[in-house]
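User: Can you recover a sequence for this backbone? Please restate the input before giving your answer.

Assistant: Of course. Working from this structure:
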């Protein structure tokens, strides 16, 4: 059980002294605000919180939250978050990063985090571009998006992260929009409360290299109460929708988390073979 505090911290009190270096209007500001609000709502003790961040503009986020932080190498958020949570399951572990970090270089880690069902909420700030390196197309960039390195548009088709997440059977899959902070805060709260791996895919536009606020705002819609997120086929239908961009909890499945299974295996093996020190185990191989 993750420890909470009773000190009544406000959202503002989760800010650090480091001022965000993001460009004016960057969607990541909205995501950061929602994270502060989630932390205040849940009264998470900063001493008990670890924010693991990828590389990119979005990766700066770990420096802005009063917590332990780990600014990893590019695309390695999930392995680090898995290690932190497994070593100390009492910690609340938030993983954050961009679409380049998550769905390009780091994409290979997602199915395994899903299989293991690590108890980590992963917030991906998807701006369809590599912001930090000045605007190359990422794995979610639409084909018509031309950049300095791809002046005739993207050669590859974009990934659909929500469909991919449902296919990998991630236990909590939601999509939010940085310009809808009330709803996004609620999604992040639900993602953190989910006991297992949660992916909150956030449309978080890059105002400098790929400003898609307007077209996104015109297409988003909130999923109604008629949607049953435990229905995987219906979840796929929402993920594949093209006319609009559905926002909300798209897919849910409860199952045992990785650290719980690891503990069970540990207990079973102690019961079967007894406790031994590392030295005693190593001595068997000498
Ligand atoms: C191994 C490695 N390859 C490439 C880079 C260069 N690099 C830094 S950030 C980045 C992409 C960032 O894009 P994204 O994850 O979408 O984050 P954003 O800046 O858009 O928030 C790349 C390719 C790197 N730092 N490390
Ligand atoms: S370059 Fe784009 S993603 Fe990076 S801080 Fe500026 S607006 Fe945000």
């Amino acid at each position: 059980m993750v420890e909470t505090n009773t000190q009544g911290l406000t959202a503002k009190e989760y800010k650090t002294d480091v001022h965000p270096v993001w460009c004016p209007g960057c969607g990541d500001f909205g995501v950061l605000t929602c994270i502060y609000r989630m932390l205040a709502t849940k009264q998470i003790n900063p001493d008990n919180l670890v924010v693991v961040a990828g590389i990119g503009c979005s990766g700066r986020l770990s420096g802005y939250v009063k917590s332990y932080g780990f600014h990893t190498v590019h695309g390695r958020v999930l392995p680090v978050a898995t290690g932190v949570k497994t070593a100390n399951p009492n910690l609340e572990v938030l993983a954050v990063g961009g679409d380049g970090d998550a769905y390009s270089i780091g994409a290979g880690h997602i199915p395994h985090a899903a299989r293991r069902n690590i108890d980590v909420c992963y917030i991906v700030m998807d701006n369809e571009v590599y912001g930090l390196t000045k605007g190359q197309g990422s794995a979610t960039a639409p084909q018509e998006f031309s950049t300095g390195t791809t002046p005739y548009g993207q050669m590859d088709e974009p990934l659909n992260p929500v469909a991919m997440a449902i296919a990998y059977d991630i236990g909590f899959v939601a999509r939010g929009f940085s310009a809808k902070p009330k709803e996004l805060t609620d999604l992040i709260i639900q993602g953190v409360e989910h006991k297992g791996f949660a992916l909150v895919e956030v449309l978080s536009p890059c105002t400098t290299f790929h400003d898609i606020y307007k077209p996104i705002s015109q297409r988003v819609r909130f999923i109604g109460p008629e949607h049953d997120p435990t229905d995987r086929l219906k979840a796929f239908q929402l993920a594949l929708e093209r006319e609009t961009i559905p926002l909300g909890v798209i897919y849910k499945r409860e199952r045992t988390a990785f650290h719980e299974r690891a503990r069970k295996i540990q207990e079973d093996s102690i019961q079967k073979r007894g406790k031994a020190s590392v030295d005693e185990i190593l001595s068997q191989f000498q």
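That completes the design. The longest strand covers residues 245-252.
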